[in-house]
Amino acid sequence: MDLAAIAQTRLLRGLDEGEQKLCLAVLDAREKEYQKGALLIHAGETTERMGLVLSGSVTVEMNDAWGNRTVLSHVGPGQVFAETYALLPQNVLPVDVTANEDCRVLLLRITGLTEQNPDTVWRQKLVRNLLAISAQKNLTLSARSFHTAPKSARGRILSYLNTVALQTHSAEFDIPFDRQQLADYLNLERTSLSKELGRMQRDGLITCRKGHFRLNGCIGSIPKRWTSCEAGAVSKK
Fold first, then answer.
1. CA 166 to CA 146: how far, in whole Å?
2. How far apart are the first and last CA of the chain?
3. CB count, 10 Å around CB of 7?
4. What DSSP letter does each residue of 145-207 carry, written as one string?
5. Rounded-to-integer distance, Cα 161 and Cα 183, Å
């Protein structure tokens, strides 16, 4: 187990080396490797363990009985998943967690947080970190509801790209999704997404290749403090 890498994650922020080791022992930390496409958690199951991605990435997605998939979030290195359900293990998960690529994951039994001496300092730090992580994830899920609100494919794409530009402070960036995943995330058919991206390129709004995008000119609410929104010329005052 790579304690040095684990210690750098937001989950263990503020814990000293001794507290980190105690935390991992109490929470029965187990490191596992998964190949691309593997299911880490199945919808319909319960879990006592949350996951901390150490390398690679996973997607949290909803798959219904008719084969429809909705991608809810992308979870990369240092990020966590299933923490709410691990704290409430009597609740059935409505989502699958799938390896987006080959990945290593640390599984933690966080019901241990409420067992024995709940007022110890390291537990307080960990709970504080979990609260901050959960708040950030709520913001991420709320953002998705904004992206899927527009009726048109173009509106949804622009909403998402505008948000990524704001987060990266750049008009040129990479997104974590492939085409199918982006379509599933925005609740669009892949063919509709691809056609609209082609139209947007012809209209001069964007330039894109696979997961790399460039916004040609200011779009939506990109900050006015940027003196230029042209790729390669983005700067802040």
1. 14
2. 44
3. 16
4. HHHT-SSSHHHHHHHHHHHHHHHHTSSEEE-S--HHHHHHHTT--HHHHHHHHHHHHHTTSEE
5. 13
**Which residues sit opposite 105 in a β-bridge?**
32, 53
DSSP annotation of 10: G
Strands of the sheet with 69-75, listed across from one edge: 39-41, 96-99, 58-63, 69-75
Q: What is the pLDDT along the chain (237 residues), one digit of tens a residue?
A: 777 888 889 999 999 999 999 999 999 999 999 999 999 999 999 999 999 999 999 999 988 777 888 898 899 999 999 998 998 888 999 999 999 999 999 999 988 776 666 668 888 899 899 999 988 888 887 888 889 999 999 999 999 999 999 889 999 999 999 999 999 999 999 999 999 999 999 999 999 999 999 999 654 444 444 433 443 333 333
Rounded CA gap, 219 and 237, in Å?
A: 19
Neighbours of 186 (CB within 10 A): 22
Question: Considering the entire predicted model, what is its pTM?
Answer: 0.74
3-state secondary structure 38-52: CEEECCCCCCCCEEE
Instruction: Let me know: does 102 contact 33? Beta carbons within 8 Å.
Output: yes
Instruction: Delineate the domains of the chain, giving CATH numbers in brackets.
Output: 3-146 (2.60.120.10), 152-215 (1.10.10.10)
Q: Across-strand partners of 73? A: 60
| CA angle at 91 for the pair 85 and 95, rounded to the nearest 5° | 65
Asked if 161 contacts 197 with a C-beta cutoff of 8 angstroms, the reply is no
Tokens 């063919």 appear where? 191
